[in-house]
Amino acid sequence: MLEKIDLTKSLSKQEYRERLPDLRDQLYDLQKACWDANIPSVILFEGWDAAGKGTSINLLTQRLDPRGFKLYPIQAPRTYETHMPWLWRFWLKLPNYGEMGIFDRSWYGRVLVERVEALTPENEWRKGYRDIVDFERTIADDGYVVIKFWLHISKKEQLRRFKKLEKDPLESWHVQPEDWEHHEKYDEYVVAIEEMLERTDTEWGPWTIVEATDRRWARVKIFETIIHRLEEALQERGFPLPEGRPDKAPVLPDVGKGDNDIPLAEMGLGTRVLRPLERAGLATVGDMVERLSEGDEGLLKLDGIGPKSLAVIKRRVALLVSSAGGGK
């Protein structure tokens, strides 16, 4: 799964400077709109050490109204928290209706670091998948928008960043001995990450894998994804988008390719939706357009594809096709 991610994606400084101010303004407007509509959101950041989670969160929160969000850097549970059900401490951090909760790492530590470092018995972390899916389903049913990011970089890029940080006396504290231990176990973590993505990517809590080699690309993709999900939430509940915002959510992938040979992996779909499509022999947007022309029934028979997922697929395909045809 992760080996298919194109980590060479990048954005020029000029395009980044042109796009970022508008994206920040859009997100500010949507934060206010969701506050007025009582729509809460949970935005969590997972990813490799030195992948840029902290800097992305810093940029994200600079333009937001501080009264409307709470930021939680997640550490190992405190002693008293270990005497409670393991998700208890996260339930207490859920935002109020209309607010945002931003998590720098999250409950996914249960099936990542606790698994690889053998901090939790195997039967316990295996039950964690079910606990997480049920937890996210419960809050999604209560109206929460669940937005999940995995910031992905290669082992080689992580090593380069570690060495660069260690050379800077003001930044060297970021790299601790445990970070080097995690780096040595990169391949073990890949196995855990891929199982996590496959088993917890759901219709109500899809994962967005962010190609984080280029920080500018990663930041823009994060902004666009959050904007897209919040606009969807407002429209699904019958609320108008903020004045001056387009009626359609922005295009997430890089679509300036001029044809329909764009891989499905670039549509921004979660693995839960992408896997059954790939098993059905659909590899490109062109394949999807051809299949959609035959009607919805065939796609709805695929495991993991429901009416809501199909609506998202149609919207993404329409945006990609129109952009590739010169609409961008």
Structural notes for this entry:
- A 5-stranded parallel β-sheet has the order 2-3-1-4-5, with helices on both faces.
- The model is unreliable at 247-259 and 323-328 (pLDDT under 50).
- It is of the alpha/beta class and 328 residues long.
- Helix 1 (13-36) runs parallel beside helix 9 and helix 11 (285-292) packs across helix 13 (307-327).
- Helix 3 links the parallel strand 2 and strand 3.
- It is built from 13 helices and 5 strands.
- It has 2 domains: 2-236, P-loop containing nucleotide triphosphate hydrolases (Rossmann fold), CATH 3.40.50; 264-327.
Summarize the structure.
The chain has helices at residues 13-36, 53-62, 88-91, 113-116, 122-141, 155-167, 177-184, 186-200, 215-236, 271-279, 285-292, 297-300, 307-327; strands spanning 41-47, 69-73, 100-104, 145-152, 207-211. With 328 residues, the chain is of the alpha/beta class. The chain has two domains: 2-236, Rossmann fold (3-Layer(aba) Sandwich); 264-327.
Keywords:
328 residues, Rossmann fold, five-stranded parallel sheet, 9% strand, globular
